[in-house]
């Protein structure tokens, strides 16, 4: 009889679409009384929770009104998104704790300091939980549940809630992704019918490209906790480390035909750096989720599908910080009510599950308080112990030719509270020279030992061959920075502790020139300076051969890619040119050199035809349905935020009627382009355009546009296989994302600005290009054993041997540049930036004879 009642309850939860299901009593525990002085969500936002999708402005307004009415809540704005929406954090605890909040915070931070933590008494120390919602904006049940949860914490009365607040500091982030949440809420609300339409084919459930999952620049913020390249992540991490919570929850949604998932995930896919105690605690907390969901009759599952491997996810990053990260995944209604295999799934039902597991998290943290606090203390203590036992005592990193890129690497480390030291003098490690001022030391003997390890290590051995996300993220390889392990540290090389990374100084060496200015292409922001010069109407040229010339610093060698700006016969006066060069050099950390003559001491003179004239990039990129939004977003963000270079984004549905003659570069990232007029693009390239194809777009180009020979991927051969292993065996063939080494031609215009013949690429696709028959047209090819870090199947490893990473094909007066990897992966692949910018500036510099 009990099973029958439970089944009826489950069906009711899925099928009820009545107004009753949206009343507060549908969600809230009925055994608790609520303070009538605390405003309900409906009294502020104007509708019942779940009746409409909450827009971010209403969410903010309610949270601020709630804070005004409750002495349990302190609210702060932690920052703003790209679209200037506020990011909020509510600190919720008892009034008594609020009165001593700073003291509690400082004591809690001491728990994470091995030098102080041993003597701390945790008997009365509150546990800290961070509860965050809807980092994917089109997974909105979390943020809508945050309305209810905040109300509950402010209004609930009785000994149970008072005890919980006395023992807990709750950091409530109602929207991890305000821009995406608002985008999706608008879509779902604008398609809602008075009489709800539940047909999955309805437009309500199929939001238009790029969807609300992403932030403004179409990035998945749930992959940015470790790289921390976006405003939202940087603002959040600052507060995370100000508190260092014991538990962090991350509320998501998944496919509509699924039920509800909570961690632990697949045990064999837990990162080996994560302490075993973390997974033990995750399992204990999970029992509270199960009990609370059992009470309302909701189906759920654990230990399947999801993992704890990539530390860039919100539910995994805490695991290496002495905390426990918890992922929740709710089957999504995608609108207000949708038919599923379980019946009609309503939006209120999805909200109720997220709210219920918010309560169970609070209950678990309260009951496991001492165990969680002890785990945090022990986690940082054992980290230092492991560091002492490790043969690696530190890492040295830095590029003397690219100080800005080094700065951004250090900036990333600082966001995670990793200690950095200056290098004293000069040192050679692994045949690499490092020198003071451009190289830095990161000792491993510090509380963030595990995080340092995951940032620097190369991983090639795995317990499992399936990954929910990428299998490698070795950061110095991503930044293309020289680095090495240090087996010992002493005061002869360890300089002062870095208080803050400083952006490099730029200058014009030699002052005002009446002849010309030179600047090298090595520095990260050299393309930004060049674009500013060209965009101002000045003529600039690029050196296609090295040369030596006398400067104010003596005779200097200048390499391929050096930029030359004549001081005369320009649209600006010599004073205006100097002012522009000086401002840009300082802003971008560039050393420019004023020269007095065009006569060099060796190599090409400044008037040589080997200096190619440049034109400002005029770039268009195809976007829209079928195009990989995150890949396109990476390019948009890079050009817009870092280089101030505008990109016109043309929707694929409008392309055939668009005038593309105004552009000199066209970009196509991974995607499907079946409706795009291939002949139109072909004619445009033949007339002098540069077409840049990335990853799967290469397959589109190889079919009738340009002669690109592709290898067909194979699967690992299996002599015997059971049906139960089908999913795992097929999944193991996927190129989920690993790091590969390629040999590059430093004399090729696409590789100007690089100084080593080895370059690391991130590849997460099964596009394999044969090298072109013309030996000059494959400027980058993978080595015989290219895997540097990450997982790859045997069949895919064989496919990767010696194939092309980049091919260039001449087509009439234009060029087709095919790049099989993601040069701008998740905005932290700084090592590919120069190559990408070279496709924009130097496409026409490539000699046609080298690409035929």
From TrEMBL:
BP GO annotations: proteolysis
Annotated signal sequence range: none
Keywords of this entry: Carboxypeptidase, Hydrolase, Protease
Active site: 329 (proton donor/acceptor)
InterPro entries in the cross-refs: Class_I_gatase-like, Peptidase_M14
GO molecular function: metallocarboxypeptidase activity; zinc ion binding
Peptidase M14 domain boundaries: 52-351
Family: Belongs to the peptidase M14 family.
Protein name: Zinc carboxypeptidase
């Amino acid at each position: 009889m009990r099973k029958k009642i439970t089944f009826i309850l489950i069906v009711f939860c899925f099928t009820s679409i009545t107004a009753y299901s949206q009343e507060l009593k549908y969600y809230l525990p009925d055994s608790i009384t609520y303070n009538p002085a605390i405003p309900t969500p409906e009294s502020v936002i104007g509708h019942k929770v779940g009746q409409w999708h909450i827009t971010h402005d209403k969410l903010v307004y309610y949270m601020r009104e709630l804070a005004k009415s409750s002495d349990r809540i302190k609210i702060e704005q932690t920052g703003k998104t790209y679209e200037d929406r506020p990011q909020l954090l509510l600190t919720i605890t008892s009034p008594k704790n609020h009165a001593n909040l700073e003291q509690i915070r400082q004591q809690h931070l001491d728990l994470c300091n091995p030098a102080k933590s041993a003597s701390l008494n945790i008997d009365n120390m509150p546990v800290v939980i961070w509860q965050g919602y809807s980092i994917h904006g089109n997974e909105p049940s979390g943020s809508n549940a945050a309305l209810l949860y905040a109300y509950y914490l402010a209004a609930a009365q009785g000994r149970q809630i008072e005890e919980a607040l006395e023992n807990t500091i709750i950091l409530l982030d109602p929207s991890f992704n305000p821009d995406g949440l608002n985008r999706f809420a608008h879509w779902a609300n604008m398609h809602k019918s008075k009489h709800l339409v539940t047909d999955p084919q309805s437009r309500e459930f199929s939001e238009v490209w790029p969807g609300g999952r992403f932030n403004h620049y179409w990035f998945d913020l749930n992959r940015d906790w470790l790289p921390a390249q976006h405003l939202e992540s940087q603002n959040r991490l600052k507060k995370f480390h100000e508190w260092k919570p014991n538990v962090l929850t991350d509320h998501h949604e998944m496919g509509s035909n699924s039920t509800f998932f909570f961690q632990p995930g697949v045990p064999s896919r837990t990162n080996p750096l994560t302490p075993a105690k973390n997974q033990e605690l995750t399992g204990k907390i999970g029992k509270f989720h199960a009990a609370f969901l059992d009470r309302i009759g909701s189906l759920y599952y654990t230990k399947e599908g999801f993992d704890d491997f990539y530390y860039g996810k919100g539910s995994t990053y805490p695991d290496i910080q002495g905390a426990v990260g918890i992922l929740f995944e709710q089957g999504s209604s995608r609108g207000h009510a949708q038919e599923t295999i379980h019946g009609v799934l309503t939006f209120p039902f999805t909200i109720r599950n997220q709210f219920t597991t918010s309560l169970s998290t609070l209950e678990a943290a309260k009951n496991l308080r001492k165990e969680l606090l002890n785990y945090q203390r022990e986690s940082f203590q054992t980290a230092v112990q492991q560091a002492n036992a490790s043969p690696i005592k530190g890492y040295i990193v830095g590029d003397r030719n690219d100080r800005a890129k080094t700065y951004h690497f250090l900036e990333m480390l600082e966001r995670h509270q990793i200690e950095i030291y200056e290098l004293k003098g000069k040192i050679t490690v692994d045949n690499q020279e490092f020198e003071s001022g451009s190289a830095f030391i990161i000792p491993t003997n510090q509380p963030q030992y595990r995080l340092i390890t995951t940032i620097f290590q190369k991983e090639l051995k795995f317990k499992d061959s399936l990954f929910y996300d990428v299998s490698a993220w070795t950061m110095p390889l991503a930044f293309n920075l020289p680095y090495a392990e240090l087996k010992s540290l002493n005061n002869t090389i360890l300089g002062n502790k870095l208080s803050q990374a400083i952006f490099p100084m730029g200058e014009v060496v030699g002052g005002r020139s009446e002849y010309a200015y030179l600047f090298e292409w090595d520095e990260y922001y050299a393309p930004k300076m060049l674009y500013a010069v060209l965009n101002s109407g000045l003529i600039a040229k690029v050196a296609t051969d090295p040369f030596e010339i006398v400067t104010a610093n003596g005779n200097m060698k200048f390499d391929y890619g050096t930029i030359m700006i004549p001081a005369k016969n320009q649209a600006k006066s010599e004073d205006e040119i100097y002012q522009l060069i000086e401002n840009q050099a300082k802003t971008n950390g560039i050393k420019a050199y004023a020269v007095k003559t065009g006569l060099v001491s060796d190599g090409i003179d400044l008037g040589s035809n080997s200096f190619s004239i440049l034109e400002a990039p005029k770039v268009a990129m195809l976007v829209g349905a079928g195009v990989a939004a995150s890949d396109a977003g990476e390019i948009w963000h890079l050009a817009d935020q870092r280089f101030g270079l505008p990109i016109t984004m043309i929707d694929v549905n409008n392309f055939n009627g668009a005038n593309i003659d105004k552009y000199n570069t066209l970009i196509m990232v991974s995607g499907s382009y079946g409706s795009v007029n291939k002949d139109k693009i072909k004619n445009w390239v033949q007339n002098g355009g540069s077409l840049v194809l990335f990853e799967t777009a290469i397959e589109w180009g190889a079919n009738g546009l340009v002669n690109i020979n592709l290898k067909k991927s194979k699967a690992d051969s299996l002599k015997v296989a059971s049906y139960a292993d089908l999913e795992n065996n097929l999944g193991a063939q996927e190129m989920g994302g690993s790091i590969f080494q390629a040999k590059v031609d430093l004399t090729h215009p696409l590789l100007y600005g690089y100084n080593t013949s080895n370059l690391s690429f991130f590849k997460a696709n099964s596009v394999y290009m044969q090298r072109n028959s013309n030996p000059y047209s494959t400027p980058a090819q993978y080595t015989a054993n290219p895997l540097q870090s990450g997982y790859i199947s045997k069949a895919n490893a064989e496919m990767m041997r010696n194939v092309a990473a980049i091919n260039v094909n001449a087509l009439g007066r234009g060029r087709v540049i095919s790049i099989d990897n993601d040069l701008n992966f998740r905005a932290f692949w700084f090592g590919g930036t120069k190559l990408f910018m070279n496709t924009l500036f130097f496409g026409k510099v490539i000699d046609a004879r080298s690409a035929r």
